[in-house]
Specification:
Bound molecules: phosphoenolpyruvate, magnesium ion
Strand order of the largest sheet: 7-14-13-9-10-11-12-8
Number of helices: 28
Distance between the termini: 44 Å
Helix content: 40-55%
Radius of gyration: 30 Å
Strand content: 15-25%
Length: about 775
C-alpha cells in the first residue's frame, strides 16, 4: 500500500492543473482500492455547496452538474462531521440523497472522507462498491491518508490554476478573452510598506521549475540561442564521455549516448521550436517542454520508464544552464522593479540598481528569513511565503506588494490602486516627519537615554544607517559579504571590507559578528546538507570546527581596526560555556599573533556573545562573566524557544516575539546580565518594532540595535512613552497567558492619537 500511496501522491503533485489532480486521484484510488467507483466533490464556499468535480465509476456527464448544498447528503455529512463515514448500504442512511445523472444506484457500500487543508474542508472523496459490505479498517485508514495528502495539492492547484487562467485571459492567449479579475494572494508580511511596480522573476540557476514565462520579439535570435545551447550541451556530453573512458564502463557511460540521441532526435527540438515561433522565449519554451516530458515519464506504470524522468530532468538542466549563461546579462530592471522568486537570496539583489528596486516577493521563506531582514534594512516592502504565486506567469505583470498585511495583488483594479497610492503617500509623509528626529536624542518622556544602534551587512544599508543618525553598529552580519563571493574571501579581501565598515562608523563602535552560516544561510561554495539544519552545524559550531576560516576572519577584523579601535567581536549561537571559551582562546591567539609576532599596534577588541539559544538564557551569568558584552538575538531565540521555524510560512502565525515565554526569557537575561554588571543589548528584529522596543526598555534594556529603516520610528515612539509606563506595561505583560492578550494590552494602553500612525505600520508582530 505504501508504495501505491507514494506513487499516487507523486503523480498528483506533478499534475498540470486542478482537473488533472482530481482525475488522477479518483482513477488511482479506485484502482488501488479495487472498488466500483471513486468520486470527489469540492466545496464552493461562496455558493455554500459541494460540486462533483471528478469521478471514475459514475457517469462522466455528472461532472460539474451534481451540486449538493452544505449540510446535505452523505457528502455534506462527511464534511460537517470532519471524519470518515463507512456504510454497508448508503441508501439506507437518512442523509442519503440520490442523483439519477450519476448512475450511482448500482452501488451499495460507501466510504467517504473529508479533504481538509489548514483546518478548512476543501471537499470530500468517497469510494463505492456494488456489493453490500463494510470497508475494513485498513481501507478506511488508506482513504484518510490519501485525503490528507491530497489536500495540499488541491489547495495549491486551485489557487495557481485560477491565476493562470486569468493571466492567460488577460494576455488574450489560448483561452477566450474574458473580464480580468483582481487576484489577491496572501503571504507573510516581512518588510512594511506599499510598492506598486513591475514583476521581474529571477530564476534559480538551472532550476526548470522557476523559469518564468517570457515572451520575445526576435524569434530568429531566440532560435539561434536555442540551437547553440543544444550544440554546446552535446559538446559537453561528448567531452564528459571521453574524459570518463578509463573511469566508467561503457555501459555506465551509455547514458551520455542516450542524452545525445535525445538531443539529436527532432521531437524535443521541434516542440520547442514551435513554441519559440509562437514568441515564447527559448528558456521558457525549453522548460515547458521538458516539464511535460518529465510528467509523462513520472506517470508511467513501468518503474524503469518512470526512472527515465530524472534523466530527462537532468538533460533539461544541462541545456537550460547554457541558455541561462548565454542570456544572463540581458535582464533589464524597469523602474519600480518588484523582484520575485521561488527563493530570493541576497546575491540576487546585487544586480538590481538600488533606485529601481521597489518591492520583493518570495515563494519560500518567512518573516525572519534573511531576505526579509534585508528587505527591512533596505526599506523595501517585502512579502515572503507567498506559496500560491504562479511564478512562471508573472514576469512583466504589474503587481502591488502590501508589506504590512503580507498581500500581493495582481490585476489591481483602479479603486484598489488608488487606495494603495493614497496609503503610500501617507507613508511618505510619515517618513518625512520622522526625518526631523534624525538629530534628536532618543530619550523617553521622563528623560531616560536609550542608545539606538543599527544592524548592517550590505554596503547600502551602512549608508542609510549613517543618514538616520545611528549611534553604532550592534550587529554587522559578516556572512552577507561572504554570500556575495564565489569562494571564501581571503584575509586581505575581508580586511578591506571590514575596514570600510569600521571607518564609516568610526569613532562609533561596530560589533562584527563572526561568520554565522548554516541554518538558512548557505554559502553557495560551502553547502551544508542536513536533515535539520537549524539544529545542526551552524554559527560558532562551524567556525570552531574550521579554525583556519575563523582565525583568518578574526585576523582580518583586527587588522582592519588598526588606528580606529572601534571594533567589537561577537560570537553567534553560543550554547555552552566551553564553546565560548574555545572561541575566546582563538581570539586571543589571533590577537597575540598580530601584536606580538607581526608588530601590529592594536587594542584588544571587546568580545561579546549572542544569546539566541534557550540554553544560553539559563546560563546568562556564566556567559556574562567571560565576556565584555551580551547581545540578544530574538530572531533565533523565538524560533528555538517556541519550536517554530523562522522560515516556514506554514507556522508563521505561531512565530511571535510577544509570546509571554519569550518575554520572561528576555527578563531573565537582563536580570542576569545586570547582576554581573555586563552590558547587554538586543539585536533581533524585536528591537526594531515600536511595541517591542517599548517592552524591551521597560525590562531594562538600554541599547537596541535594528534595521536602519526602523530607527526613526522606534525613536519616535520612545520619545512619547515614559520609562515608568514601559516598566508598568512589562510587569503586567509578564503575567499574561498568551500573545494575543499581550498585544491587546499594549494596544489598549498605548492607544493615543500621537502613536496611531506609528503603530499602524508596526513591522514585526
Ligand atoms: C537573531 O537571531 O536574532 C539575530 C540577530 O541573528 P540572525 O537573524 O542573523 O540569525
Ligand atoms: Mg541568529
Amino acid at each position: 500500500m505504501l508504495d501505491q500511496l507514494r506513487s499516487i501522491v507523486q503523480e498528483v503533485n506533478t499534475a498540470a492543473n486542478l482537473t488533472e489532480v482530481l482525475n488522477i486521484a479518483a482513477q488511482r484510488v479506485k484502482e488501488v482500492m479495487n472498488v466500483g467507483s471513486c468520486t470527489i466533490f469540492l466545496h464552493e464556499p461562496e455558493n455554500k455547496r459541494f460540486v462533483l468535480r471528478a469521478t471514475d465509476g459514475f457517469h462522466k456527464e455528472s461532472i460539474g452538474k451534481v451540486k449538493i448544498p452544505e449540510g446535505q447528503g452523505l457528502v455534506g455529512l462527511v464534511a460537517s462531521k470532519e471524519e470518515p463515514i463507512n456504510l454497508e448500504n448508503a441508501s439506507e442512511h437518512p442523509s442519503y440523497a440520490y442523483f439519477p445523472e450519476t448512475g450511482e444506484e448500482r452501488y451499495t457500500s460507501f466510504l467517504g472522507a473529508p479533504i481538509i487543508h489548514h483546518r478548512k474542508v476543501l471537499g470530500v472523496m468517497f469510494a463505492q462498491q456494488e456489493e453490500r459490505r463494510r470497508f475494513d479498517e485498513g481501507e478506511e485508514a488508506f482513504m484518510v491518508t490519501i485525503c490528507a495528502q491530497l489536500a495540499g495539492a488541491i489547495a495549491h492547484a486551485e489557487a495557481t490554476g485560477e491565476l493562470r487562467a486569468q493571466l492567460a485571459r488577460s494576455r488574450g492567449e489560448g483561452l477566450a478573452a474574458g473580464r480580468v479579475q483582481e487576484i489577491v494572494l496572501n503571504g507573510v508580511p516581512s518588510a512594511p510598506g506599499i510598492a506598486i511596480g513591475t514583476a521581474v522573476v529571477v530564476a534559480v540557476a538551472a532550476d526548470l521549475r522557476t523559469v518564468p514565462r517570457r515572451y520575445i520579439e526576435d524569434v530568429e535570435a531566440e532560435l539561434k540561442l536555442f540551437k547553440q545551447a543544444i550544440r554546446r550541451t552535446k559538446e559537453d556530453l561528448h567531452s564528459l564521455d571521453s574524459s570518463l573512458v578509463n573511469k566508467l564502463s561503457s555501459s555506465e557511460r551509455a547514458l551520455f549516448g542516450v542524452y545525445i540521441s535525445m538531443l539529436d532526435d527532432h521531437s524535443l527540438s521541434d516542440e520547442v521550436t514551435k513554441l519559440i515561433k509562437g514568441k515564447l522565449a527559448a528558456q521558457s519554451a525549453w522548460s515547458q517542454v521538458i516539464k511535460e516530458h518529465v510528467r509523462n515519464f513520472e506517470q508511467m506504470q513501468d518503474p524503469y520508464l518512470r526512472e527515465r524522468a530524472s534523466d530527462v530532468r537532468d538533460l533539461g538542466r544541462r541545456v537550460l544552464t547554457h541558455l541561462q549563461q548565454a542570456q544572463s546579462p540581458n535582464i533589464e530592471y524597469p523602474d519600480n522593479t518588484i523582484l520575485v522568486g521561488e527563493e530570493l537570496a541576497a546575491p540576487m539583489l546585487a544586480d538590481v540598481p538600488h533606485d529601481k528596486l521597489a518591492g520583493m516577493i518570495s515563494v519560500r521563506g518567512s518573516r525572519n528569513s534573511h531576505m526579509a531582514i534585508l528587505g527591512r534594512a533596505l526599506g523595501v516592502p517585502t512579502v515572503m511565503g507567498a506559496v500560491d504565486l504562479p511564478l512562471e506567469e508573472l514576469d512583466g505583470c504589474e503587481l502591488v506588494v502590501d508589506g504590512h498585511r503580507g498581500r500581493v495583488v495582481i490585476n489591481v483594479s483602479d479603486p484598489v490602486r488608488k487606495s494603495y497610492e493614497h496609503q503610500r503617500e501617507e507613508e511618505c509623509l510619515l517618513a518625512a516627519d520622522l526625518e526631523e528626529l534624525r538629530d534628536q536624542p532618543c530619550v523617553t518622556s521622563d528623560n531616560h537615554r536609550i542608545s539606538l544602534w543599527v544592524n548592517t551587512g550590505l554596503r547600502i544599508d551602512t549608508m542609510l544607517s549613517l543618514d538616520r543618525g545611528a549611534e553604532g553598529v550592534g550587529l554587522y552580519r559578516t556572512e552577507v559579504p561572504f554570500l556575495m563571493h564565489e569562494r571564501f574571501p581571503s584575509e586581505e579581501e575581508q580586511r578591506q571590507i571590514y575596514r570600510e565598515q569600521l571607518e564609516m562608523f568610526a569613532p562609533r563602535p561596530v560589533t562584527m559578528r563572526t561568520l554565522d552560516i548554516g541554518g538558512d544561510k548557505a554559502l553557495p561554495y560551502f553547502p551544508i546538507e542536513e536533515a535539520n539544519p537549524f539544529l545542526g552545524w551552524r554559527g560558532i559550531r562551524v567556525t570552531l570546527d574550521h579554525p583556519e576560516i575563523f582565525l583568518s576572519q578574526l585576523r582580518a577584523m583586527m587588522k582592519a581596526s588598526l588606528g580606529l579601535n572601534n571594533l567589537r567581536i561577537m560570537l553567534p549561537m553560543i550554547s555552552s560555556v566551553s564553546e565560548l571559551e574555545a572561541a575566546i582562546l582563538l581570539i586571543d591567539r589571533a590577537y597575540n599573533e598580530l601584536t606580538q609576532e607581526e608588530g601590529f599596534e592594536l587594542e584588544r577588541p571587546k568580545v561579546g556573545a549572542m544569546l539566541e539559544v534557550p540554553a544560553a538564557v539559563y546560563q546568562t551569568r556564566e556567559i556574562a562573566k567571560r565576556v565584555d558584552f551580551l547581545s540578544v538575538g530574538t530572531n533565533d531565540l523565538t524560533q528555538y524557544l517556541l519550536a517554530v521555524d523562522r522560515n516556514n510560512p506554514r507556522v508563521a502565525d505561531l512565530y511571535h516575539t510577544f509570546h509571554p515565554a519569550l518575554l520572561n526569557a528576555l527578563k531573565m537575561i537582563i536580570d542576569g546580565a545586570l547582576q554581573e554588571n555586563c552590558q547587554v543589548s538586543v539585536c533581533g528584529e524585536m528591537a526594531g518594532d515600536p511595541l517591542g522596543a517599548v517592552l524591551l526598555i521597560g525590562m531594562g534594556y538600554d541599547v537596541l540595535s535594528m534595521s536602519s529603516a526602523n530607527l526613526l520610528r522606534v525613536k519616535s515612539i520612545l520619545r512619547y512613552v515614559s520609562l515608568e509606563e514601559a516598566q508598568q506595561l512589562v510587569s503586567e505583560a509578564l503575567l499574561l497567558p498568551d500573545t494575543s492578550s499581550v498585544l491587546a494590552q499594549l494596544e489598549q494602553k498605548l492607544s493615543r492619537p500621537e502613536l496611531e500612525r506609528l503603530l499602524r505600520t508596526s513591522a514585526v508582530n
